[in-house]
Design a protein that fits this description.
By secondary structure, the chain is an alpha/beta fold. The longest helix has 38 residues. Strand 12, helix 3 and strand 13 form a beta-alpha-beta unit. The protein has a domain of 39 residues. Strands 1-2-3-4-5-6-7-8-9-10-11-12-13 form a 13-stranded mixed β-sheet, with no helix packed on it.
Length: 354
């Protein structure tokens, strides 16, 4: 009797193990299929874009007359091909979208890619000949594959609040890229190859709390607008010959060495924001900044301004509130600026002084 009971128990255990293995194998098969779809979706089973979007697990609004990013919608060209696809708050991004034949804009918001390591699917390279605008926001993307560099016609790349930690070296191959938004991520540094993005004009790096250096940008020949607020950057970049607007509020700057190398090959007005840093020293080279119009130095550690600043004839607005200037020094500054810059908007002690 005991032997029979033992045999029954063993038989049950074997059956349970077999069932568990079948379940495991089944899940493994599903996982492998999903992974394979993102790596290399089988596009041969779709005759046209109509069949592609019919495979999506959600409906598309084709009747939208305006760009409402809170909606999931698509737009077609005259041939019936989808050229704009906006996905918002869906369960997942369907791998079959990479089979669309003329997709020019892809926008993904609050919708996950089912990659096992939270990377952007390498199947993205299938859109290399058509994609011009790519936006992914509020969606986990820890890294970009090297294949991103094959999107040679991409003009805008917007990856905000994705948890991105690193950029691939191939980012430098994006020859058509003019706008790059990487705000609200977890970047630590920029790859040296970013200097090769020869069409890049706007770069946004706000709210990357661990970003300490942007020296990889040194010598960038086309950058005009750089926003890098709320990071931990310790030094300003140098030799950005076309730079016009620079926003570096709330960082870890201690001085502004090489400020005269910013925008030195363009006569357009310069607007520089350096408030909420730890700047103790303003370089005499400030007088060499080409057409400096606006300078914000609020909330720093300045205790003296170089005499050279009174030679900046183009300066129209200067903020130096909440620094370490003495009352007598401030009075002397006001008197001197009244003589050299009678129309200057000079904010020095409180909001009432502006």
């Amino acid at each position: 009797m005991k032997l029979q009971i033992t045999f029954i128990i063993l038989a049950c255990m074997v059956q349970m193990k077999c069932n568990a293995m079948e379940t495991y194998n089944g899940l493994g098969t599903i996982f492998r299929n999903v992974l394979q779809e993102y790596v290399s979706p089988d596009c041969t089973k779709y005759a046209n874009d109509d069949e592609v979007y019919k495979s999506f697990p959600f409906e598309l609004d084709f009747n939208s007359t305006r760009r409402d990013f809170s909606n999931t919608y698509a737009m077609k060209n005259g041939n019936g091909d989808i050229i704009v696809l906006n996905i918002n708050k869906q369960e997942y991004v369907p791998p079959s979208l990479f089979c669309l034949t003329d997709l020019q804009e892809l926008h993904v918001h609050k919708t996950k890619f089912h990659t096992f390591d939270l990377g952007l699917p390498i199947a993205l390279e299938r859109l290399a000949s058509t994609l011009k605008y790519l936006t992914i926001s509020d969606t986990p993307i820890r890294y970009l594959p090297e294949q991103i560099g094959r999107l040679i016609y991409l003009k805008t790349l917007d990856l905000s609040n994705t948890g991105l930690t690193i950029l691939p070296k191939s980012i430098g191959k994006l020859a058509s890229l003019t706008y790059l938004n990487l705000c609200d991520n977890k970047l630590i540094l920029l790859p040296s190859t970013i200097i090769n993005t020869l069409s890049l004009q706007t770069l946004i790096l706000d709210n990357n709390a661990d970003l300490r250096s942007i020296q990889a940008l040194n010598g960038h020949s086309s950058l005009k607008f750089l926003q890098a607020d709320n990071c931990q950057i310790e030094r300003i970049p140098r030799n950005l010959s076309q730079l016009i607007n620079l926003y570096m509020s709330n960082n870890s700057l201690t001085d502004l060495s090489n400020i005269h190398t910013l925008g030195n090959k363009t006569n357009k007005k310069k607007l520089f924001f350096f408030d909420n840093n730890f700047i103790r020293y303003l370089s005499p080279h400030i007088r060499q900044v080409n057409n400096l119009n606006f300078l914000n130095l609020n909330y720093n550690k300045l205790y003296v301004l170089p005499m050279d600043i009174y030679e900046v004839s183009t300066l129209q607005t200067l903020y130096i509130q909440n620094n370490d200037f003495g009352d007598k020094d401030l009075q002397e500054m006001v008197a001197r600026f009244d003589r050299t810059h009678p129309k200057l908007k000079f904010c020095y002690a409180s909001k009432k002084s502006c």
